[in-house]
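Forgive a beginner's question, but might I ask you for the amino acids of a protein and the tokens describing how it folds?
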Amino acid sequence: MKKMFFLIPVLISLGCGENKQATQEQVTTYYEGFANGDYVQIKSTLSDSLITTEGDYTMPFSRESYYEKFKWDSVFKTEYQLVDINYKKGATIATVSLKSPRLAFLENSPMTCKYRFEFENGQIARIANLECPTANWEIWGERVNELVVWTKENHPELDGFINDLTMKGAQNYMQAIQFYQNRPRSD
């Protein structure tokens, strides 16, 4: 009987180790999909439904609707580098470095963020942005506001890009950045 009680914790810890390794592999595969521009690879890691959170902002997705987010992000040519991955309290925590022309315009590239991944049946079911300790949200906000106001005044056909999370919205966002950066200046 004593041997049985000794084996139970060992078996449980082995099971958790496999779970830890499997979830870390899923997160790695997820980010490799972004690096490869391969949505099929990303989709293979996702649960039938996915919830992402950033602060108070929660977005539910299906595997199919998450493709729109992928297309939006692909316009910005975001580079993801998985810096660290840990397993804590039933969740996988990934530290990721991000670079993109959009983040460069917002003077926050590269930017490092921590994400918590939660799983259901071995698939990613929830991604929460925990923090972006290297981000300068004050500069970010100033740059976004400058761009939005300038675009509204000078290129009203692109107005609304900031809230348009479709591929077209991202294209308008990039076009607004290009127009803004190439604007005539009187110094």
Residues 1-18 have pLDDT under 50 and may be disordered. The chain is about 50% helix and 30% strand. The first strand starts at residue 46 and ends at 54.
